[in-house]
Design goal:
single chain; mainly alpha; 7 helices; about 70% helix
Amino acid sequence: MKTPEVGHLRDPVQLLALGFGSGLSPRAPGTMGTLVAIPIDLLLRFLDMPWRIAIVSLAIVAGVWLCDASARRLGVHDHPAIVWDEIAAFLVIMLFVPLSWVWIAAAFVLFRLFDIWKPWPIRDLDHSIAGGLGIMLDDVIAAIYTVVFLAGLQLIEI
């Protein structure tokens, strides 16, 4: 297993997979990667929704390949420094979240909780599906859990 370092960021695959360097954080790299998604989302909000959906979909599909390639280069499945999965999954959530710091903060906290806790079936999928698909899928499902939870909060008008 290789320990990722700043020099890895010269490789475009690693630059993206390691979240533009946020995955190199010695503490909470997944949280740092998720934070990177916020300014990306703020830029995407200048686009019409069909374009946002297309770009986020591309981020998910490309993420399967990126995460797989990065994991192979680092020699370990789902190295903590690989945070493209958090970035892309959080962008999915942001498609459903109003532009409000309260809702963005709630989405951030809930997503990190679901991603760390890994309730069923996330934990099972995380351990049973290899490669980039497995790396991406657990975060996408955590994103779906987050969207459902936030929708419930909106229904009860919190």
